[in-house]
Amino acid sequence: MIDVFVHGFIVGISLIVAIGSQNAYILKLGLLKQHIFKAVMFCIFTDILLISCGVLGLGFFIKDNQLLINSIAIFGIVFLCFYAFLSFKSALKNESLKIDNEVKTNPVKKVFAMLFMFTFLNPHVYLDTVLLIGGIGANVKENLKIFFILGTASASAVWFLSLGYLSRLLIPLFKKPITWKILDILIGILMLYIAYSLVDLLKI
């Protein structure tokens, strides 16, 4: 049981830690100290949900459904390009790039909406959680699958809690508007890169 748990943790952390749109958004929320716990819990819960579905066999359905993959990829490309535009636009504004009590806090509904789109409109999420992690977990003995899922869930919890709460250690650096500008530009470039990578998934 312990070996399966540790195996699940290692597999989970090796894929979850990869820099992606969801992680970039959590980092930004952590720096702004806005809805961190709720956002982190959302990411952990969705990871557990998707990984569990993959381990229990949903990955085979998604893998063979090209229409579904095309639909998600197209929505993902549009959304990521739009968010990249917002990031580049934000980099031009000094007044919104401060960390203090006067910063306007994003409504929790907006945060959840963004996380929902970053999670479910990004095919890479399904590739990592449902297909890759789920595919590995599907080969674990039936009575030990729960321990594999718990291992990956622990990896997700460790990563997102660290990303959300330890990012505040960087706040002194991000007190400078130029640092925020650089972050927004890098996030915008990252979003465009991920959107470009989704083109390879399209088969029309």
Radius of gyration: 18 Å
Order of helices and strands: HHHHHHHHHH
Proportion in β-strands: under 5%
Helicity range: over 70%
- Average pLDDT across residues? 81
Counting DSSP E segments of at least 2 residues, the number of strands comes to 0
What is the distance, rounded to the nearest whole angstrom, between the alpha carbons of the first and last residues?
A: 44 Å
| Poorly predicted sequence stretches spanning 5 or more consecutive residues | none
**Oligomeric composition of the shown chains:** single chain
How would you describe the shape? globular
Number of domains: 1
Judged by helices, strands and strand pairing, the structural class is mainly alpha
Give the biggest beta sheet: none
Features:
single chain; 204 residues; mainly alpha; 76% helix
What can be said about this structure in brief?
The protein has one domain.
Could you explain the architecture of this structure?
The protein has 204 residues and is mainly alpha-helical. It has one domain (2-201). 76% of the residues lie in helices and 0% in strands. It has ten helices and no strands. The protein has helices spanning 2-16, 21-32, 36-55, 58-63, 66-90, 108-120, 123-138, 145-166, 171-174, 177-198. It is globular. The relative contact order is 0.24.
